[in-house]
Design brief:
This protein has two domains: 3-240, 4-Layer Sandwich (Glutamine Phosphoribosylpyrophosphate, subunit 1, domain 1); 247-336, no CATH class. It is built from eleven helices and 19 strands. The protein has helices at 20-29, 57-60, 63-67, 109-127, 130-140, 184-188, 228-234, 246-260, 276-286, 309-319, 324-327; strands at 3-9, 37-44, 47-54, 73-79, 87-89, 95-103, 143-151, 156-160, 169-173, 177-181, 193-197, 202-207, 210-215, 240-241, 244-245, 267-271, 294-295, 321-322, 332-336. The strands form five sheets. A seven-stranded antiparallel β-sheet has the order 3-2-4-1-10-9-11. A six-stranded antiparallel β-sheet has the order 5-6-7-8-12-13. Helix 4 crosses helix 5 (130-140) and helix 8 (246-260) packs across helix 9 (276-286). It is globular. It starts with a strand and ends with a strand. The model has no long low-confidence stretch (mean pLDDT 93).
Length: 337
C-alpha cells in the first residue's frame, strides 16, 4: 500500500532541472498511502542522492533539506512501516527501486523487494537492456505488485504484475517532464496531464528522448485482479485508477446499498471522511438528506494503516468527534467504509 512517484526530464538542458521539490509535492498527494516513512531520491552527474526519513512528508522535509537535494531525475516513496524502505543496489549496476505490494519471492515484503531489485540489476547488467530485463522478470515472478526503479544509466523503469493488482498512472508536463505515480492525484497536484495507466504486465522505460513500453507474456493467461481496497478506502477520491474514477465507484456503492438496505431515517452520515462518498451516494438514491456528523482534531491521519493497535485506537479517538446537534434525537444511517 505504499505510494510511489517517479519524475523524469526530457531533451536538451534536462540537467538544469532540480526535481526534489516536485517529488515532495507529489508525495504530499500520496501521504495517505503511508505515514511512517518518506523518501526522496534524486540523480545527477554526481550519482544518486538519497534522503530516507521517518515520519510524514511535511515533517521529514524542511526547506533546507529540499534545497540541499540536487538532481534532475526524481524518485519518491511513502510507506506505512519503517521496515519498508527503498532498495539500494550497488553491484553489478547502481539501482534504486521502490515498490508497492509484494513479489512472491520471500516471506517478508522488504526481503522480496530486495531479491527483485537484485535480480533486475543482474539481468540489466547481463543484457544491457533494462526494458527487456524488467519484462522477463514480470513474466517469471508472480505476486501483486508495482514498482519504479532508477538506474545509474539514467533510465527510469516502472511496471505492474500481470494481474494488475497494484496501480500505476502516467502523466506529463508538456514535452519537458514525464511522470509515473501510484495515483493520478499526485500528477494533478503537479499540474501535469494524466495520460493513461500502466496496463497489467506492462513495463514503461523513460530515457532522455523517449518513452518505451513492453508487455509481459506469461505462459498461463493471468486473471485480472484489480485491488478493491484502492477503490473502497486507500486511494484518494479525486484519483482515477485503471481508467475508473474512485469517487464514482464509492458513490455508486452507496447508491446500491440504499437499494439493497432501504430504511426510514432523518439523515445519512459517512464515517470516517473516506466514507462520505458512500453516504452521498446513499443519500442520492434514498432521498434522505446527508449531514456532516464528525469533525477531525489535528492532522489528518490514516488510522487503519497505523502500525500498532494503540495508535489506531488513539487515532480514532482524536479524529472522530461527533457534531451532537446533527445526531441527537435523530434516526441516523451511519455508513462506515
Amino acid at each position: 500500500m505504499p505510494g510511489l512517484i517517479g519524475i523524469y526530464p526530457f531533451g536538451l538542458g534536462r540537467e538544469n532541472w532540480r526535481l526534489a521539490r516536485f517529488v515532495y509535492y507529489g508525495l504530499l498527494a500520496l501521504q495517505h498511502r503511508g505515514q511512517e516513512l518518506a523518501s526522496i531520491i534524486t540523480y545527477d552527474s554526481g550519482g544518486f542522492h538519497e534522503s530516507i526519513e521517518k515520519g510524514t512528508v511535511d515533517e521529514a522535509y524542511t526547506e533546507e533539506k529540499l534545497n540541499n537535494l540536487p538532481g534532475f531525475i526524481g524518485l519518491g516513496y511513502v510507506a506505512p512501516s519503517i521496515d519498508q524502505k527503498p532498495v539500494i543496489i550497488d553491484h553489478p549496476i547502481g539501482l534504486i527501486l521502490v515498490g508497492d505490494g509484494k513479489p512472491n519471492l520471500e516471506s517478508r515484503v522488504q526481503s522480496s523487494w530486495r531479491a527483485f531489485a537484485e535480480m533486475l540489476a543482474d539481468e540489466i547488467h547481463r543484457t544491457g537492456d533494462a526494458l527487456e530485463s524488467a519484462r522477463r522478470l514480470i513474466e517469471e515472478i508472480d505476486g501483486g505488485f508495482s514498482f519504479i526503479a532508477l538506474t545509474e544509466n539514467q533510465e527510469l523503469i516502472a511496471g505492474r504484475d500481470v494481474h494488475g493488482v497494484k496501480p500505476l498512472e502516467v502523466g506529463s508536463l508538456g514535452f519537458d517532464l514525464g511522470a509515473i505515480a501510484s495515483e493520478s492525484s499526485a500528477l494533478d497536484v503537479l499540474g501535469m496531464e494524466h495520460i493513461t495507466h500502466v496496463n497489467p504486465g506492462e513495463i514503461v522505460r523513460f530515457n532522455p528522448y523517449s518513452i518505451e513500453k513492453a508487455r509481459a507474456k506469461p505462459k498461463d493467461k493471468p486473471n485480472l485482479s484489480y485491488c478493491s481496497f484502492e477503490y473502497v478506502y486507500l486511494a484518494r477520491p479525486d484519483s482515477t485508477i485503471n481508467g475508473i474514477g474512485v469517487y464514482e465507484v464509492r458513490e455508486r456503492i452507496g447508491m446500491l446499498l440504499a437499494k439493497e438496505k432501504p430504511v426510514k431515517a432523518d439523515t445519512v452520515i459517512g464515517i470516517p471522511e473516506t466514507a462520505i462518498p458512500f453516504a452521498l451516494g446513499y443519500s442520492k438514491a434514498s432521498k434522505i438528506p446527508a449531514s456532516l456528523g464528525f469533525i477531525t482534531t489535528g492532522r489528518k491521519v490514516r488510522t487503519a494503516i497505523k502500525p500498532s493497535l494503540f495508535e489506531r485506537l488513539m487515532g480514532v479517538q482524536l479524529k472522530l468527534n461527533p457534531i451532537k446537534c446533527v445526531i441527537d434525537g435523530r434516526d441516523v444511517v451511519l455508513i462506515d467504509d
